[in-house]
Design brief:
Rossmann fold; alpha/beta; six-stranded mixed β-sheet
Length: 216
């Protein structure tokens, strides 16, 4: 890929935008950091990339046969892919734009079929509910925690709808804070090397307080 050397697993940040989880630039979401935290904790090679970086590097090449073949050759050297698609809030964005279902379909079509792909996030759940069923044998769509499903796969070679423990949550959050989701994020530094606008979203609680009737 132009400008970015890929290795190991490709972590494609399709951005999350939920009422309690901001992940569209200039924010970097906590779920994508947890995913990278799993790989960091295990010492597994990976490449972090935002969906906007993917668009800039591949949009033109995806339009012709030779370009698509070149991209496929590059992707064939990877161990697998993890895609987070968490945007379910309608609206316009000033900067980054979350991954669309059409873009994910194109990504799955170009990514080698013999390699595993893990998809997760609220958008994935929503699209599945709407009948989205891509034909791919090694595709797993996580219902629970994407990071825990990835960790289970790396341990056993089998996919599972897993939930992280409190200990795993702490470990992956700390590892994710210094992961490539932060250190290679395009918003970390400006072009002249100054501190960029990258902002962390922190997760302090999960779910809604039901005795107050949940979310409003």
């Amino acid at each position: 890929m132009v400008g970015i050397r890929m290795e190991g697993w490709l972590v494609l940040d399709g951005y999350e935008d939920e009422p309690a989880a901001f992940g569209v630039p200039n924010y970097v979401g906590f779920h994508i950091r947890y995913v990278c935290g799993v790989l960091e904790a295990r010492g597994v090679p990976y490449t972090y990339m935002t969906i906007d970086q993917w668009r800039l590097s591949h949009k033109k090449r995806l339009e012709d046969t030779e370009g698509r073949a070149q991209i496929k050759r590059e992707l064939s050297e990877l161990d697998g892919a993890i895609v987070l698609a968490g945007a379910i809030v309608p609206g316009k964005y000033i900067r980054g734009t979350p991954i669309s279902r059409g873009e994910l379909d194109k990504f799955l079509a170009i990514f080698p079929y013999e390699q595993p792909v893990l998809c997760g996030g609220w958008a994935i759940k929503h699209w599945r509910y709407d009948g989205w069923t891509p034909l791919r044998s090694k595709l797993f769509c996580a219902v629970n925690d994407v990071d825990a499903s990835l960790d289970h796969y790396l341990s056993t070679g089998e996919w599972s709808h897993s939930k992280r423990t409190a200990e795993q949550w702490s470990e992956w959050a700390l590892a994710g804070a210094r992961s490539k989701a932060v250190t290679t994020h395009p918003d970390l530094l400006t072009e002249d090397g100054r501190a960029g606008p990258l902002t962390y979203e922190l997760e302090l609680y999960q779910g809604c307080v039901r005795f107050k009737r949940g979310c409003k």
